Amino acid sequence: MKDSTIYQRPESLQDVPTHYCPGCGHGTAHRLIAEVIDELGIRERTVGIAPVGCAVLAYDYFNFDVTEAAHGRPPAVATGMKRVRPELIIFTYQGDGDLAAIGIAETIHAANRGEKITVIFVNNGIYGMTGGQMAPTTLIDQKTATSPLGRSFQNEGPPLKVCEMLAPLDGTAYIARGALNKPANILKAREYIKQAFLNQIEGRRFSLVELLSACPTYWHLTPGDSMKKITEEVIPNFPLGVIKDER
After folding, report:
1. What is the pTM of this model?
2. Is residue 152 part of a domain?
3. What is the dihedral of CA 158, 210, 45, 64, to 10 degrees?
4. CATH number at residue 69
5. Do the strands 65-68 and 241-245 form a parallel or antiparallel pair, or are they unpaired?
């Protein structure tokens, strides 16, 4: 029987090891983005924006131009880049602390203005880079470094649902939420990412894809148990699917 290739690194990914913890979803997210960019043939005109957070070193892993922005400011940087160079494909790659906390104003206003950019939002419900503090998307009763007794509705409020918050804005064209916990969900998330990039290629307004991801290190779980947590606890709080599609 002849050998067959079952795995091939996307051209848009560098052949280097990453710094991500075992079980972290960032590597999977990188792979999906790289596959989509290769499939669409846009590598030579794509620019990514990596902010402060666990993905701060994304420019070491993607095989195309990637710049860095101050914490929470990728949508503002993306706005400037896209307006000056509208022929480029601009995407931001942001975590929940970056996008939904310090950067929430930039996120909302870029979406409301209908900026023709693509936002990839990796939501693991915790600050991973700085020590496991509570994030805007931390679940009720979830224990973190800054909520050792668990997040409470009374004290900290419920987790922020970014997709549901942005979908009613007139400036948004496409809002979807996927998960990186099992093959079927990963394949569906890839479809969402592809459509978000297609929207920009075709000149549509703001697109955002949220990816529910794991942080085994600060969830204090094994990678396997982290996948189980996404299925049993995270997805019920953040339902999957396309929330808005104006095509």
Report:
1. 0.96
2. no
3. 90
4. 3.40.50.970
5. unpaired
